[in-house]
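# nightly structure sweep
# worker-07 picked up a monomer target from the shared queue
# config: single-sequence mode, recycle default, output format = structure tokens
# input follows
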Amino acid sequence: MTRANSFVLFDYDGVLVDTLPRYIHVATKIAERFGNGSQITKDVVRSNWGGGWQNFYGRVLGVPEEKMTAATAYYRELQHDNAPPPLFEGIETAVKKLAESYKLFIITASNIKNVRNVLGSHKLESFFEDIFCQESLPNVRKGDPRFFLIPMQKWGVVPNRTVSIGDTIDEIVMGEKASVKTIACAWGWQSTELLEQTHPDALISSPNQLVETVSKLLPKNEL
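# output follows
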């Protein structure tokens, strides 16, 4: 039986698509050109991510505020130079199964054109009702509940019938502040230890657990 009035909000990077290896490469180049020249590693990202990409650029990469716009443009330029990043194993199956019972949306700080291109290349975009990206809220950073609340209002998403799926503390905090159930994904950009500190409603280690976990978290009276 479908749940036409129940909703699932997905993050993009680190949940659907394995973009971290590419981000590490790009972030190192940004630090070299605009910041402190740091060599970025997976551990650096997983231990320091939070407060939006802007905070990471400034605090970790050493990019000054006056160079943020140029650094962002450079990031997008480097993104277009490569083949689409891969989906996480099991995500395609999970998304298609969830789309049979829920309305799916994406809320991400990534560039809308890049997100659509990547999902299109994997033939996955059609399973989502809509995609909301940073360009629509240029002055609101991840972690701010408005990053969730504004698109939720636009889509008519009801908090007590909604589950959000994210891989960083920003997504979990936003979900909690927006009064939606939260699922933390340990396969993404943040360490399990940091995710546990935000007390998500569920913490899972594989996309293969998504369908069952979402089903458990949404209210039974919405069946």
